[in-house]
Amino acid sequence: MRVLAVNPGGMSTKIAVYENKKPIFLESISHSFSELARFESIADQKEYRKKLIINTLSKHNIKLDSISGFVGRGGMVRNLESGVYRINQAYLNDAIIGLNGQHASNLGGILAYEIAKENDVGNDAYIVDPVMVDEYDDIAKLSGMAGISRVRSFHALNQKAVARRYAREAGKDYHNINLIVAHLGSGVSVGAHKHGRVIDVNSALGGDGPMSPERAGGVPPLALIDLCFSGKYSYKEMYKKLIGEGGVYSYLETKDMQEVEDMVRKGDENAKLIMEGMAYQIAKEIGALSAVLYGSVDAIILTGSVAHSGLITDWISSRVSFICKNIMIYPGEDEMQALVEGVIDALNGDREILEY
Fold first, then answer.
1. How is the beta sheet containing 69-73 ordered, strand by strand?
2. Residue 184's closest CA among 281, 266, 105, 62?
3. pLDDT at residue 131 above 90?
4. Residue 220 and residue 290: Cα distance in Å, rounded?
5. Which sign does the torsion angle of CA 341, 313, 196, 190 carry?
6. Where does the pLDDT of residue 101 fall: very low under 50, low under 70, confident under 90, or very high at 90 and above?
């Protein structure tokens, strides 16, 4: 069984073709700021990214009619239970408008669907564990302000993938253990996994939780309100201050954490303060979620691209090891594998195919 997976990110489009869960090829196409700046919206990038995908398949001599399944990263649509979903018109409508916000992941399912329909066989297309997975306990949804829920987007796909990977490698059942999973990338999300469900997690794209390389996280709200109403900034400018130009970037004018680490190793004390400050905030979030799990934590997992940094993972581990000595580090992400495995398992009848 051959599957095409599409995973659009803010500055890249990841493409992979697997056969029976083994990769034929994986490729990440980088997009420069100037390339994407010519598009008014994320939805406007669709044809540009679609052409790149088709050309990449052609370069690898992959014909569309040889592909059995098509899967894309799920976007900021309505809140859903974890699972494998067949893409339908309702999903496409919500992804195009960005029902819960604008993010490149909104294009994942759309691109998978359109490429599937170019296939003469007319296969269905799917999403797996989209960013709007909602498995919160009701008490965790309370924000402190009526009308505003804490349920927002997070790195559900990779969090679920590494949690299942840990359970598999440890010889345990994911549905019988408690984990805290911290995804450390351009955004940071830290989730409490209780018996197979993410019962609480900060919103990686909702102004919540730790700062990240480009996101401000939980800024003190009254100071933020003052800045919003100062007359100095438009809505768009304030949005960028929180998401895109916040976090580490706002202090050091770079989002490249390898560059920041190089600065630290060369003795830059300000860079060290900011980098360690991000680790400090992530550790605080892990500590908060240990309370959600009543201190019963089988493992703490650090994952995502920033988990390649030994400095970051050491700083976090030193602060949270009192919660759980079992700290696992899975650098990078398992998203492409998770997308493909979800679809293959569903097409083989091992996982239920849900309707959006």
1. 22-30, 12-19, 2-8, 69-73, 125-128, 84-86, 353-355
2. 281
3. no
4. 23
5. negative
6. confident
Cβ neighbours, 10 Å, residue 89: 9
Given a contact cutoff of 8 angstroms between Cβ atoms, the answer to whether 21 and 340 are in contact is yes
How many residues comprise the chain? Answer: 356
The 10s digit of each residue's pLDDT in 66-88 is 999 999 999 999 999 899 999 99
| Residue pair 340/11 in contact by the 8 Å Cβ criterion | no
* Buried/exposed code over 291-309 (b: 16+ C-beta within 10 A; e: otherwise): ebbeeebbbbbbbbbbbeb
Closest CA to 103 of 29, 34, 43: 43
Is the pTM higher than 0.85? yes
| Distance separating alpha carbons of residues 128 and 21, to the nearest angstrom | 15
Say whether pLDDT at 122 is over 80: no
d(CA 250, CA 260): 13
What is the maximum span of the chain, computed from C-alpha positions, in angstroms? 59
User: What confidence score (pLDDT) does residue 121 get?
Assistant: 60
Q: How far apart are CA 323 and CA 112, in angstroms?
A: 41
Location of structure tokens 């580090």: 329
Q: Where are the beta strands (DSSP E) in the chain?
A: 2-8, 12-19, 22-30, 69-73, 84-86, 125-128, 178-184, 188-194, 197-201, 299-304, 327-331, 353-355
Contact, 153 vs 104, CB < 8 A? no
